[in-house]
Amino acid sequence: xxxxxxxxxxxxxxVFGYIVYxxxxxRIKALETRIKHVEKLLQDATQGQKIAEPNxxxxxxxxxxxxxxxxxxxxxxxxxxxxxLEAKQYVDELKTGN
Length: 98
Fold this sequence. Notes:
The chain is mainly α. 81% of the residues lie in helices and 0% in strands. The protein has helices at residues 3-46, 56-65, 69-80, 84-96.
């Protein structure tokens, strides 16, 4: 095999490895965000405190009033680390007032 082909294959493997690593790193950060949120809710529940509505909901309601549904879902995903479906369902429930 020619040296240039070896370099091309090695480069492709490295690029693929970087893409997998980056995707995994993003998923880990999202899971860490979710865990922090759940830990806070659990701590509040075990201390007998009423679980308060997240401060984010007011910001989301403002976005919904302005017709920025996509922005609201995106912000929900950033804050809670949820999947697209989970964030959409949360925003839909907030929109209907549940």
